[in-house]
Write a structure and sequence with these properties.
Layout (H helix, E strand, L loop, with lengths): L7 H19 L4 H8 L3 E11 L2 E11 L7 E2 L2 E4 L4 H17 L5 E8 L7 H17 L8 E2 L8 H14 L26 H13 L3 H6 L10 E5 L3 H13 L3 E7 L2 E4 L6 H11 L9 E3 L2 H5 L5 E4 L18 E3 L8 H9 L3 E3 L1 H4 L2 H15 L8 H19 L5 H7 L5 H26 L6 H20 L3
Parallel strand pairs: 3-5, 3-6, 4-5, 7-8, 7-11, 11-12, 12-13
Antiparallel strand pairs: 1-2, 2-5, 8-9, 9-10
Helix pairs in contact: 1-3, 1-17, 3-17, 4-5, 6-8, 6-13, 6-16, 13-16, 16-17
The protein binds glutamic acid.
Length: 475
């Protein structure tokens, strides 16, 4: 099939497979094991009716399970009109690799519903979500121990709360029912820090990247994130938080934001909060006073910048525009934003790419924490926080006694403060992202056949997953 006539999802799935093949080529891995890992374990397609405004409408959804070497299999549910079986399979595969890279003990899965959520009211979406949930649960594609969804494009806390509630009513005797889905509101068993986790993960990984001077130099940059020009494509949940944190906390300048209706450009840096308000009120970026409007967003992808963060859907950097990209580093906050062919072109032009399977793994890392919190039925930090605080007070007291001097307030405050759940989530996320990038850089530098970070990431993922196949055997 020529790529022109392919369903877009199929092209995406093949692109992921080809990228993994590049890793397999440089590894000492049995090709049959590699093929067994790459294959999608199972896919469910459901079509169901829902009565909307007195009329019966049919909806089609999918849930793909890519791997079950660890359980549950994990991954979001997407509501979009780009969804098809192949897209869901590609995204499920990425979940397997992502979890392995950040050491989250889950298999990979992904779901999608073919729907434009903007066309439906809140109540209608609730009915549709609850019906989809029942289909998934009845067919064995939803449970705390086997398959745990999360938010993705077009879904959020609200949908996750409906899923959790529907599951609870189906299986009220399941003590762990609340762990059947992650990304829930905090009042319904969610965890603090999950909403912004993917964007936060993008920030932590970029911070870590800039601690590696040689890598920064290889990407034709120097110094820290401070003052770096960044273009963000897509100001949804991931793009918004990444842009906000990088500009407000690291001193980076967001010089352009690309959205569905065009782009805003401001060489002095865009005020992300204000732009977000504008988008919420007006539905798009057009008319925003804090920058120049450019109708053709695709042109803006090709503008000069230090870092380009594609944070929306797949395949935005392809064969045609890859030769024109001027960023020095691409941080893939979205899943699959660079096609296989574009990846080759970018490599030949020495444009570095921090791959999706690493960059956007922050979401599933914090989902893992949420799932553990749900299984333990206790908030992180609940037992030790006050104890740690009183120990901190003791240390401050001891310092004063021993030195006969006052301990500065900021040191006292830091010492005498027990970590709450939010602190622990952020610390765990930071640690996961740092370790994962360090391993990727190390793998990349240790083997000259590994030309790029993506291949290094997949070498790590494939060797971790294959180990579990080899240890246990295939039966
Ligand atoms: N949808 C997110 C992703 O693509 C989150 C998955 C999860 O938390 O399970 O990584």
């Amino acid at each position: 099939m020529s790529t022109a006539s392919m369903p877009s999802g199929l092209e995406f799935r093949q692109s992921v497979d080809h990228m993994v093949d590049r890793a397999v080529e440089v590894m000492d891995l049995d090709i049959d094991i590699a093929n067994a890992i790459k294959a999608c374990t199972s896919v469910l397609q459901v079509t169901f009716p829902v009565k909307i405004k007195g009329k019966i409408e049919m909806f089609t959804g999918w849930r793909a399970v890519h791997s079950i070497h660890r359980l549950p299999s994990k991954g979001g549910i997407r509501y979009a009109t780009s969804v098809d079986q192949y897209e869901v399979e590609a995204l499920a595969a990425l979940m397997s690799y992502k979890c392995a890279i950040v050491d989250v003990p889950f298999g990979g899965s992904k779901g999608g519903l073919y729907i434009d959520p903007k066309q439906y009211t809140r109540d209608e979406l609730q009915m549709i979500t609850r019906r989809f949930t029942r289909e998934l649960a009845k067919k064995g594609f939803l449970s705390p121990s086997t398959n745990v969804p999360a938010p993705d494009v077009g879904t959020g806390q609200r949908e996750m709360a409906w899923i959790a509630d529907t599951y609870k009513h189906l299986y009220p005797t399941d003590l762990n029912h609340v762990a059947c889905v992650t990304g829930k509101p905090v009042e319904h068993g969610g965890i603090r820090g999950r909403t912004e986790a993917t964007g936060r993960g993008v920030q932590y990984t970029l911070q870590e990247f800039f601690r590696h001077k040689e890598e920064v130099k290889d990407a034709s940059m120097d110094g820290s994130l401070e003052g770096k020009n960044i273009i963000v494509q897509g100001l949804g949940n991931v793009g918004y938080y990444a842009a906000k944190f990088l500009s407000e906390e690291d001193g980076a300048k967001i010089t352009a934001v690309i959205e569905w209706d065009g782009a805003i450009i401001n060489p002095d840096g865009i005020h992300i909060e204000e732009l977000r308000y504008h988008i919420n009120d007006n539905g798009g970026v057009k008319g925003f006073a804090g920058g120049t409007y450019e109708e053709d967003g695709t042109k803006v992808l090709e503008m000069e910048c230090d870092i380009l963060i594609p944070a929306a859907l797949e395949s935005v950097i392809h064969e045609e525009n890859a030769p024109n990209i001027k960023a020095k580093l691409i941080a893939e906050a979205a899943n699959g934003p660079v096609t296989f062919e574009a990846d080759r072109i970018l490599r030949s032009r020495n444009i570095k790419v921090l791959p999706d399977a690493l960059m956007n793994a922050g979401g599933v890392v914090v989902s893992y924490f949420e799932w553990i919190r749900n299984l333990t039925h206790i908030r992180f930090g609940r037992l030790e926080r006050r104890f740690d605080e009183s120990k901190g007070h003791c240390i401050v007291h001891a310092l004063k006694e021993m030195t006969g001097r006052d301990v500065p307030d900021y040191i006292q405050d830091n010492l005498a403060r027990g970590a709450d759940e939010f602190d622990l989530v952020r610390s765990g996320l930071d640690d996961s992202m740092r370790l994962a990038l360090q391993a990727i850089i190390d793998t990349h530098n240790r083997n000259e056949k590994i030309e790029d970070y993506r291949t290094a990431a997949y070498v790590i993922a494939m060797s971790k997953i294959s180990r579990s196949y080899l240890d246990i055997g295939i039966y």
